[in-house]
Amino acid sequence: MRGRATSGGRRPPSSGTVALRARAPAKVNLLLRVGPRRADGYHEIVSLMVPLDLSDEVKLRVELGRRGGVHCRVPGRPELGGAENLAVRAALAFRRLFRVEDRIDILLDKRIPVTAGLGGGSSDAAAVLRMLARAYRVTDRSGLARAALEVGSDVPFFLGSGPAWARGRGEQLTPARVEPLHLVLVYPRDPALAIRAPEAFRWLDEDRPVKGRAIEGSLCPRRFDFSTMAQNDLEGPCLRRRPGIRHLLGLLVRAGAPVAIMSGSGPTVFGVLPGRATARRTAGHMLETGPDLEIYAVRTLQRLPGVFRWTSPRSASSPSVKRSSRLT
């Protein structure tokens, strides 16, 4: 049977166009502890990840019954629309797993900085998986989780419901209760400060005098206190090789953030502020420091966004799609 996912739920329509959209939120790591490198090349982690109201918008069109490939456009950033885009890789993983051959078109409105330690690419990938699950009426959560992990270690988080403790590679998720927080993100545009995740983990391994120790099992408290518990094991090695990031942390603290740390593998840094007005004032102060910084005053989300219908120029005859769904 060509182009049909049948794992759970009702069979999708045999023809027509399904057009969906979803917001793909950024994330920060309020805590990131990194254990030893595993035999498969990945590191054991314990991390508290929370989604933000800074998000990309992802639109997806599936042409049911029309054999075709996966096509991606990123307006203003055409270089990001290739096969290495995680959203494309997610669509390809879904096609392999659920034996789908229909044409898939992806349109990405990028608002999250690229390669910034904010999970933008992983979130785009998860949004594509959620929309494809909706289009093909797939309810096989374990299959979607396998597809997500195939694309990247952060992708399973964005298939969840909201803030979560992540273990293993990041795929072992436990929902977390995190009080709403107001943050100021600082992303440096300077290419000299760019960091890719594999570099950050390699630097950590190089700086450790001995092989990393196993992570303590008590690092997932019911209540998280950012002022005393915020920590990122990747920060030290990255600051030693990118000292300009240390300067950004100092700017945040001097602008009013009680505590500031690097998010994920960087180079974005962030501080938690006591309220929205304070966050906006701090962001304003940071904007005065120079044009090479992108500054965002954001808040954390308690739930990840859902999937909605989208009126595509080519979807006038789209099959009926129900209102917002939360399959994953």
Topology readout:
Layout: E1 16-37, E2 43-67, E3 70-73, H1 86-98, E4 102-109, H2 120-135, H3 141-151, H4 155-158, E5 164-168, E6 172-175, E7 182-188, H5 197-207, H6 226-229, E8 231-232, H7 235-241, H8 243-254, E9 260-262, E10 269-273, H9 276-287, E11 293-299, E12 307-309
Parallel strand pairs: 1-8, 3-4
Antiparallel strand pairs: 1-2, 1-12, 2-4, 2-5, 5-6, 7-10, 7-11, 9-10
Helix pairs in contact: 1-2, 1-3, 2-3, 5-7, 7-8
Write structural notes for this entry.
27% of the residues lie in helices and 29% in strands. By secondary structure, the chain is an alpha+beta fold. The protein folds into two domains: 16-176 and 303-309, Ribosomal Protein S5, domain 2 (2-Layer Sandwich); 182-299, Alpha-Beta Plaits, CATH 3.30.70.890. Strands 1, 2, 3, 4, 5, 6, 8 and 12 form an eight-stranded mixed sheet that branches. A four-stranded antiparallel sheet has the order 9-10-7-11, with helices on one face. Strand 1 (16-37) and strand 2 form a beta hairpin. The radius of gyration is 20 Å and the shape is globular. The model is unreliable at 316-328 (pLDDT under 50).
